[in-house]
Write a structure and sequence with these properties.
The chain is α+β, with helices and mostly antiparallel strands and 224 residues long. It has 7 helices and 9 strands, in the order H-H-E-H-E-E-H-E-E-E-E-E-H-E-H-H. Strand 7 and strand 8 form a beta hairpin. The chain is globular, with a radius of gyration of 20 Å. The termini are far apart. About 3% of the residues have low confidence.
Length: 224
């Protein structure tokens, strides 16, 4: 049987995938450079907020799909609390921070339709994804974003066209795979309570309290 152009394309695409896996393996070598110190970054907090017993996630112990993960809960004097979670991976193509609405669904939450929003941090607008996660009579108000290779990303998954995904293939083939950071901030409330802004208040104060270099790492956005 004479090969068709579709057979040829299938072979080429298969070779591209094999090459990408080889290059990803190379990039996962520890010689790529130092990992960010997420624990130190997440333990910084703005004035008026105090840490409460939180947890440190060890990806190797939990078989998590990230190289680093950290969580911390902070509370202010009025009793309002905010939880902040960070995940980071060398390989931002295969180990990117998941769309958080998907994770919440998988853990039994009833999730509202995610939507794009923004938070004003000083004079700078920070784009985020926001949704509500309902569990029993409790609701978690959530915002999050990702930073891919130093570039801010708050796109909803349904709004990412296939053409954009295919544009990433050449980067994979040459081993130019970006790292990935995911930052999520949330707060809990009872179903009868109005939506809370404690998590938004926290992230505004937090981003303005850290150094410019840390702020750039966390957001992928320039000066505030």
């Amino acid at each position: 049987m004479r090969p068709t152009k579709y057979t040829f394309l299938a072979i080429v695409f298969g070779l591209m995938l094999i090459c990408s896996e080889i290059l990803v393996h190379i990039r996962q070598n520890p010689s790529k450079g130092a990992k960010p110190d997420l624990q130190s970054i997440i333990k910084q907090h703005p004035e008026g907020w105090q840490s409460v017993p939180g947890s440190t996630v060890d990806p190797s112990a939990q078989n998590a799909p990230y190289d680093l993960a950290a969580t911390q809960i902070y509370k202010r004097a009025d009793g309002k609390a905010a939880s902040i979670v960070m995940t980071w991976s060398f390989d931002g193509f295969h180990q990117a921070g998941h769309p958080q609405e998907v994770c919440y669904n998988a853990h039994g939450f009833h999730v509202s339709t995610p939507r794009n929003s923004s938070v004003m941090v000083g004079e700078q607008k920070l784009d985020v994804v926001t949704f509500e996660g309902r569990y029993g009579d409790m609701i978690e108000d959530v915002i999050y974003w990702r930073v891919n290779g130093g570039i801010h990303d708050a796109a909803l998954q349904k709004n990412i066209p296939m053409t954009q995904r295919f544009k990433e293939v050449p980067r994979i083939l040459i081993g130019d795979i970006p790292d990935n950071l995911m930052v999520r901030i949330s707060t809990w409330r009872r179903e009868s309570d109005p939506p809370s802004t404690a998590h938004i208040d926290y992230i505004k104060a937090y981003l303005q309290s850290v150094s410019p270099s840390t702020r750039l790492f966390l957001t992928g956005v320039g000066d505030y």
